[in-house]
Amino acid sequence: MVNLGRNIKQARLARRLAMLDLAERAGVSEKTIQRLERGDAGVGIGKLAGVLAALGQPDALAEILRIEEDAVGLSLAVDAIPKRGISYVKRGDARAPDSRHEADDDDEGVGF
């Protein structure tokens, strides 16, 4: 959270906004801006979203954990893939192929 706070402060300063101005635009208190810039994890996500929108970055929260960029999430998803295939035929329910269809090859040599 400290890095996020530092980034919010840098974004505010780059836009030449005072804490009070950003707070008014975001609909939060100046104290909330101070807490965010310090990296206080107790600030609600709704207030963070408001501040990001006031800074012109309304989609920034969606970018935080984009699945394409989440190496840990992707690694866990790959690990969760079964190592062996799953059979969808119940034991004892497998039937012998229907002999009528085996003789129905089409003229092009491909049969399904």
Automatic annotation (TrEMBL):
Q: Which CDD domains match?
A: HTH_XRE
Transmembrane ranges, per UniProt, are none
Output compositional bias ranges, type Basic and acidic residues: 91-103
Residues in HTH cro/C1-type domain copies:
8-61
Q: Where is this region: Disordered?
A: 91-112
| Gene3D superfamilies given in the database record | lambda repressor-like DNA-binding domains
Q: Name one Pfam family in it.
A: HTH_3
| Record's protein name | Helix-turn-helix domain-containing protein
Species this protein is from:
Sulfitobacter profundi
